Amino acid sequence: MSLVEIMVGVLIAMIGIVVIFQMLALSEERKRSASSGSDVQISGVIGLNSLERDVREAGYGFSSAGYDTAVTPVMGCTVNAYDTGRPTPAYSFRLTPVLITQGVGAASDTITVLRGNGNVFPAALIFTESTDTTKKTRGRAGLIPRDYLLIGRVNPDLQCMLVELTGVANADGLTIDHGQGSYSYPIYNTDGTTTTQTRIARYNNPTPLTSFSNGFIFNLGNGARRNIWTVVGGKLQVTNDLLYQDTNGDGANDPVEIADNVITLQAEYGIDANNDGRIADSEWTTTDPATNAAWANVLAVRLGILVRAGQFERTQVTTTVPSWTGGQFVITNLDGTASSSSPTDPADNWRNYRYRVYETVIPLRNMLWGSRISP
Fold it and tell me: What DSSP string runs through 309-356?
C-alpha cells in the first residue's frame, strides 16, 4: 500500500467523521428543540388550566350581590378587611369576582379572583340589627363558626366589611357573633363523627371601620380565597391575599409558582353592553367595570398566555411578535431591551427562541347564576 493510498483513506475517514459529527450535532439540536417544545407545552397547559379553573369559580358565595341594582347594589364596593397575620393588619379590596389590572408597557397583566367555598346556596342573608361584634339575621341556617362573612350595607352609603364568624349559639336562634379572642368550631369527619377545635379569631378588627344597622351577609365558607395571578421572572405565580404568609421573611406574601417559561399574561372583560345575551367583538375591553350596574353585564373573561421555549436557536426562528385574539403581545429581549432592537449577544434576542400562545374564553358562571338569585 502506497503513501498516497493511505492519505486517501485517511481523508475519506476524516470526511466520514465530519459528516457523522454534523449529523449528531443536528440530531442533538433537534432533540433539544423538541424537548424544549414539550416543556413549553406542559407549562402552557398547566398554567392555562390552573388559571381557568380558578376564574370559573370567581364570585362563588357573593354572586347574588349583583342580583339587582335596586335590591343588593353592593358589587364593586370597597371591602374593609383585617388580618392579624399581615404586617399592616387593616387593609381593603374591591368586591369583584375578577379584577384585571393592566400591566404597563411589557409588564404582564394581573388577574385577581375572589371566590368562596361554602356548602350552602349562595343567596344573601338579611340582618336587621347590628353591633360591632354581632348581627341579628332573619335566619342563620348554614352559618358555621370559622366561615368568612362578607357584610354589606346600602344606606346611608355603600360599605362592606369582611369578618370571621365566631359563634352561632345565641338563644334567639338568629344572632351571630364575630368578636375577638378564642372560640370553638366543629370539624365534620368523613366517618360521620364531629370533633371540636379551638382557634383565635384572626380576621376580626378590634376597632371596626364601619358601623352597620342593617344590610346583607354573604357566606364565603371557611376556605375563601382572593387569588392574585401574575407573571414574575418568567414564572406564572399566585398568592392568596386572604391568607398572608411570609415564611422567607422578605416582607411579602409567599407566592406559589404554577408554571415556568411564561413571558406575559393578558386579559380582557367581556361586557354585554347592549343586553343581547352575547359578547360581540367590540364588547371585549380592558376597561374596568367600576359600578354595580356594569358588573351585571360582565359575562366572561378571555385571557392569553405567551410561553417561550428555553432552547436558544442559532437562527432567528421567530420573526414577528406573537399575538392573540386580544391583539399583539408586548415582549422585550432577554436583556430587557426593546423588542425592536437587536442585541449584540444573539442569546438575548427574542427572535432566537420559539413561542407558544395559549388562550381561552372563561364564562363567569357564578355571576350568571347569581343575577337570578334574590335575597
Answer: -SPPPSS----S--EETTEE---B-TTS-BTTS--SSGGG-GGGS-EE
Alpha-carbon dihedral sign for residues 298, 121, 238, 200: positive
Q: In whole angstroms, give the CA distance from residue 154 to residue 292.
A: 12
Cβ pair 95, 370 in contact under 8 A? no
Residues 227 and 51: their CA atoms lie apart, in Å, by: 10
Of how many residues is the chain composed?
Answer: 375
Give the separation between CA 230 and CA 130, rounded to whole angstroms.
39
Distinct helix (H) and strand (E) counts, the chain: 3, 21
DSSP codes of every residue in 79-115: EEEE-TTSSS-EEEEE--SEEEEPPSTTPPPEEEEEE
Is residue 16 exposed (0-12), middle (13-18) or buried (19+ Cβ within 10 Å)?
Answer: exposed
As given in the structure block, the three cell numbers for residue 337 are 431591551
The letter for the amino acid at 305 is I
What distances in angstroms separate CA 239 from CA 49, 205, 228, 311, one per listed residue? 17, 22, 5, 29
Distance CA 189, CA 70 (A): 42
Please answer whether residues 39 and 308 qualify as being in contact, where contact means their C-beta atoms are separated by less than 8 angstroms.
Answer: no
Q: Which range among 17-21, 76-80, 239-243 has the greatest average pLDDT?
A: 239-243
Q: Which is nearest to 53 in space by CA: 232, 238, 329? A: 238
What is residue 206's DSSP assignment? S
Grouping H, G, I as helix, E, B as strand and the rest as coil, residue 66 is: helix
Amino acid at site 231: V
CA distance 338 to 106: 9
Distance CA 13, CA 330 (A): 51
- The average confidence (pLDDT) of the chain is 87
Give the whole-angstrom CA distance, residue 92 versus residue 85: 15
Show me where the domains of the chain are located. 40-59+225-370, 117-219
Task: Note the pLDDT tens digit of each residue in 18-65.
Answer: 777 777 666 666 655 555 557 788 889 999 999 999 999 999 988 877
